[in-house]
Amino acid sequence: MTATNDPRVGTQSGPTADSDTAGRWVACDESGWDGEQLIGRRGPYFVYAAVAIDDAEATGIVEELRAETRYQAPELKFRDFKKRSIRRDALRRLWGDGGALEGRCWAFVFEKEYAAVAKVIDLLLEEQAYAAGFDLYVDDRARTLAQLLRQHGRRALGDQGYESLMTAFVAFASVRGRGDERAREAFFTHVEEAWASSTRRNVTDVLMMLRTTRSQAEMFHGDTDTHPMLELLVSSVAQAARHWGAQLGPVSVLTDEQKALPDDGLDNIAKVVRHGWGATPSSRQRPVDLRALVRGTSVDHPSIQLADLVAGAVRVSYEHKAGTEISEAGEDLWPTIRPLVDKSSANPSLGGIG
Question: What is the DSSP string of 50-67?
Fold first, then answer.
């Protein structure tokens, strides 16, 4: 299923074009990115969007949008579409039935607090289970544990106790906290305090399990690998490649420039995607025929501008639906963005895609 040569990585300055060599191009952008600081920053959601289109075709679509909406700025940005109903109408037509991008838009939504909890479950409880000969991914057991703690933790621990625990999770698992004994001890101190004060049995049970993972935590902090475990961009690129590779076959992925995606980072992602990934047989993902994984700017690539529109619309719609930021844009766009969102998105508070 994979190509014979290693995928090309780096910066793509020239326009992208579908071909036998490159396969189909997929353009990506994000909304709500905070790096590894998943708690208390730029809103509750991170969205990664990918549109199956190359620059050659995207150029015409962008020009049509400009003419239809009287858009004057150098680049299409969702923030300029959010406030005007005529521009939101144009987006609904673009993605909807018969639109130029019908069936070609995809987005993955992370609720950031859930992502932090899920990563700690993965780093500690999954490793503990694996060492004992169990597969925590069977029947979505790992996801269920993370959902329990995220959905019921605040009621079980109170606002202050829950937020302190979430902050300790991030400090423990982030690159900055890696190998820091104080961060590790603070993490277990907060787990102990949360376990002792929990008023809900299901939350108490998860915390009890985490209390027993000190050896896994020490192993994690002793690992010399400084891969940013909480960086959602990394896993999102892999998810986008996996989705479109399954749909289209050979693909090349163009993602918006971010400091979290240097050449060596892109290379690592590309190798994992091409060879498949997953800690256990039940979580194993199939390899993707990835021909290129490159970065670029929205100034140079109209295809990235189209991905920006999708990412922004999905985030605003989810914020509206969750009640964290009510907006006319979220109300208008929600029906048309729902079909674009991956059903496996890490978003328990809205029950998958709501």
Answer: EE---HHHHHHHHHHHHH
